[in-house]
Design brief:
The chain has 258 residues and is of the alpha+beta class. It has two domains: 2-67, Winged helix-like DNA-binding domain superfamily/Winged helix DNA-binding domain (Arc Repressor Mutant, subunit A, Orthogonal Bundle), CATH 1.10.10; 102-247, START domain (Alpha-D-Glucose-1,6-Bisphosphate, Chain A, domain 4). It is 38% helix and 25% strand. It is built from eleven helices and nine strands. It has helices at 2-9, 11-22, 28-34, 39-51, 71-80, 82-92, 94-99, 116-124, 126-130, 182-185, 224-237, and strands spanning 55-60, 63-68, 106-112, 137-140, 147-151, 159-167, 171-178, 190-199, 202-210. The strands form two sheets. It has a seven-stranded antiparallel sheet with strand order 3-9-8-7-6-5-4. Strand 4 and strand 5 form a beta hairpin. Helix 1 (2-9) packs antiparallel against helix 4, helix 5 (71-80) crosses helix 6 and helix 5 (71-80) crosses helix 11. The two termini are 31 Å apart.
Length: 258
């Protein structure tokens, strides 16, 4: 948390986040042209943002692209805001709202103190998945080419797709079709990639949601920060997030919605 606050305290770094918000997935050269500072200065500020987890980089051939990562902002929100002021959060957290808006490709990164095997289980076990995935379990036999279905209870699928690449416990690539409303159904198929990398006694989880049309409905990916925050909370503490969104499709023992 300290690294996030230090990174956001500098107005130049906030400007960098604004530039990436305006156009995500930029190279260093593209960012440098937008700011009145040297290449070295841009690199120095980007390094601070990367260390805080607010910027994630991905290689595309010879290019290194920079993406916003809203997950640390979500963690701050969950820790100090949601418990006391959830009804006002949308109005007060303009930056958070901006970071979660639509882009052709969105990259989310989080560090979780756990093992790759335990993290993979939390992603693929329907009972564990439902605890941080808005109450929605995901059912599949997790083989390449197999289908999966996300549902809070039998007969009510809210998402579905195909497991394109299954490499436990390191990588899972899936097509993604949202079914919870006519609006999201009309968006068609996108793609979600889960990548797990062990780092010391923790794991770095990177979720890339891409193949989205420009201006796609933000319900498709706006929930990722809350999902990943809930996953981290569950694996590190055994506790569940209780924000309204995290309980959206939760059910009582009798099967009723909460």
């Amino acid at each position: 948390m300290d690294a996030v606050f230090r990174a956001l305290a500098d107005p130049t770094r906030r400007t960098l986040l604004d530039e990436l918000f305006a156009q995500d997935g930029q190279t260093l050269s593209a960012i440098e042209r937008r700011l009145p500072m040297t290449r070295f200065g841009v690199m120095k500020h980007l390094r601070v943002l990367e260390e805080a987890g607010l910027v994630v980089t991905k290689r595309r051939g010879r290019e290194k692209l920079h993406f916003l990562n809203p997950v640390p902002i979500r963690l701050v929100h969950d820790r100090w805001v949601s418990k006391y002021a959830e009804p006002w959060a949308a109005t007060l957290s303009e930056l958070k709202n901006k970071l979660e808006e639509a882009r052709m490709e969105k990259v989310f990164e989080i560090y979780i103190k756990t093992t790759p095997e335990r993290l993979w289980q939390a992603i693929t076990d329907p009972d564990l998945r439902a605890k941080y995935n808005f109450g929605v379990g995901v059912f599949s036999d997790w083989t390449p080419g197999s289908r999966y279905e996300g549902t809070p209870k039998p007969g009510l699928p809210l998402l579905e797709g195909e497991n394109l690449d299954v490499n436990p416990p390191r990588r899972l690539v899936q097509s993604f079709n949202a079914l919870w409303s006519d609006e999201v159904k009309s968006e068609g198929t996108s793609r979600v990639t889960w990548e797990i990398e062990p780092i010391g006694d923790s794991c770095r989880l990177t979720v890339t949601h891409d193949e989205l049309r420009e201006g796609a409905n933000d319900e498709l990916y706006g929930g990722w920060p809350m999902i990943l925050s809930g996953l981290k909370t569950l694996l590190e503490t055994g506790e569940l997030l209780t924000t309204p969104g995290s309980l959206m499709y939760s059910t009582t023992p009798s099967g009723e919605r909460t």
